[in-house]
Target: CWH43-like N-terminal domain-containing protein
Amino acid sequence: MWFLSYWVVPIFSALVWLAMLIAMLVTWSVQGMPKYSSMSEGQTIAYISDVGAQGLEPLFIAMSTVTVVSFDIAFVLERWLRHTGKLAPNTSIWQKIYSGISIVAAIAGGVGLILLTIFDCVNHNRLHNIFLAIFIIGYIVSAIFICWEYQRLGIHFREHSVLRTSFWIKLAFILIEVGLAIGFGVSSRQGKYNTAAILEWTIAFIYFFYVLSFFIDFMPAVRTKGHQSHTTEMDMARMESGTAMGDGAANAEQYYRGGTHRHTNGHTNGNGYANGYT
Model:
């Protein structure tokens, strides 16, 4: 059943995050865009944390926690589905390592977000900023390694266009978020707090699209839910007969050219040709 499928998890996570951001932004606007006590001199645009620390702590903590916990579950599900063959299987130990690092980094980023909502910018400003950095860096590192894993998988499974699509989405997220995070840090250091606030809100909304994009990764599993496709079984058999530790690049050609053996319609005559026919 589609409504109970795996891709529901990242969509749910993304929508919870979006709902929280909209609720906070609308609340601040309806209140007349007030200048909170946590805002710096000359700052007129509130940070997300400024809004979250002013009466919206329960919403900020609860919805952020639900977002990252469900999103981290999506990472674990993706690993499990790939391991069981419901998604294109990993072709090397290194790809599994990349996936593992991605999961650990995502969990670290999630913990950072939960803690920054608990230790607000009013009473625990230094800790709040540390956890904010952990949140941003954690998910960027996670994106880098899952992007790396998908790039290697794409070499072997060129027929799986979803791998290419997901790779480019995650690469775009890395480049955009790194650029925005640098801009956010520089603006904050230079005292350009309104610019920094705009960049922070932008980073948060782009994070929504990043989380949402993971539903694409789960779409192939919809076709194999409850059973394993013949193609996937063949892929896994090839993986088991191949090299265990390399990233598979040396054997990539056989995966997207149909193998190393050519099919013939007759017997070979000893020189590699099938009596003039191939």
User: Anything to note?
Assistant: Residues 226-245, 248-278 have pLDDT under 50 and may be disordered.
